[in-house]
Amino acid sequence: MKNEHVMLITGTRKGIGKYLVGHYLKKGFRVIGCSRGDSDCNLEGYEHVCLDVADENAVKKLFRHIRKTYGSLNILINNAGIASMNHTFLTPKNTVEKILNTNIIGSFLFCREAGKLMRNNSYARIINFVTVAVPMKLEGEAVYAASKAAVVTLTQILSKEFGHMNITVNAVGPTPIKTDLILSVPEQKLNDLINRQAIKRFAEFKDISNVTDFFINPESGFITGQVIYLGGV
Amino acid sequence: MKERVLKIISKSIDALNQEFENQITMDQGENTILFGEGGVLDSIGLVNLIAKVEEEIEDEFDDELIVVSERAVSQKKSPFKTIGRLADYIVTLMEEKNEK
Lengths: 233, 100
Description:
The complex is a heterodimer of chains A (233) and B (100). Helix content of chain A is 42%, strand content 15%. Chain A is α/β, with parallel strands linked by helices and 233 residues long. In chain A, helix 1 links the parallel strand 1 and strand 2. In chain B, 59% of the residues lie in helices and 0% in strands.
């Protein structure tokens, strides 16, 4: 697929976000990525911006830069997210605030500003990241899962608010995948979780890009407000 | 500054008129009712106008401004009621931002 479409991905310094940058550069997209820290990606067609996704002014500045530099935006992938796997008794308020700020407020700000920039496009897609911890109601992930449940609702409601602008809003919910996000989770717990999936294995990066490819496909313009969970959850 | 903001609002409405069938007339000047009873905009028109005004402010003043705020949606006298009120509200937001 050769194209000049402009894509913004959040949380691109490592993990799934970094993989998606390479995946979509190969497909010919212009990709802008962001994270708190610098990126080591210097591939042609990629631009990295350092910011906190919950900083409203920084987000506004980024979208202004995109409008001035690229003219518009076709695809937003809201990948940035943080997790804290712990019993509620062991979860301080400060951790809760950090998770809500990144996962909910960050996703909201990027959706809002992307919607403004995409409103006159004939081709516009927003993809949010959620988690199987929402439908599985996983103990030890109360705040993380609650924050992603909010992103599910955000996705479904924005699909209606943005529908008349031909912007589709969907979400992908990965199962555990070997990234830093699950480093602190005990192996036994991960195995228990995987055993509750219909297909009992870790997700791979390509499982995720298969779903994002589907949502991004120009022929998926009638697919919106949907959440696809991996692994048969 | 208000004159520049009024021009931005007028330019934004002109742009909306080119995009949508429902034409917005500004023959009442600053007193043109934008949103609410007797308003020329529906809710979709209002969000499009806000987005366009923000873009025009970025271009004109070389700065970002978020036109929505808690105050805007809770004020009894909505800043989106008329063109004049919207201009006053934007000027206030810009002055507050410059003071920070």
